[in-house]
Amino acid sequence: MLFGLRKDHLAGALIACIGGFAILESLSYGMGDLARVGSGVFPTAVGVLMILIGALIAGTAPEAAAGAEDARRQADWRGRGCVVAGPVLFVALGHWFGLAPATFACVFVAALGDREASLRSAALLAVGIAIIGIALFSYVLQVPFPILQWPDA
Known about the structure:
Blueprint: H1 7-26, H2 41-59, H3 68-72, H4 77-96, H5 99-111, H6 119-140
Helix pairs in contact: 1-2, 4-5, 5-6
């Protein structure tokens, strides 16, 4: 707890600061005009959006109640471990088995980090995201990543 602020306030401020730095950096690029948009337009737009989102996050955060609840709450190591293990599984399984099993495993394990998630809800979420990921990356964007493969012996 820093000066009685909640994590949401600090996160919103951090996002807004990063957006401000993006805008400052984009000023060194040319903006162009409507007919020929310059390379500085996109980072400026992203910076403005980040400032707005950061303000929304900080503005809608509930006020701190003397910080007692945050100080008593223990770290959720299960959730953190699952969120870290998800991308690790994606890299390992993607290399050997392809996009479909890697995406399923990543989302399934990360979803299990939520203590309220059941095995069924995590599996349904993983199947849905895997289908969307395959459709998007393999068919729409045509990323050269095999959907399903078997490792060479």
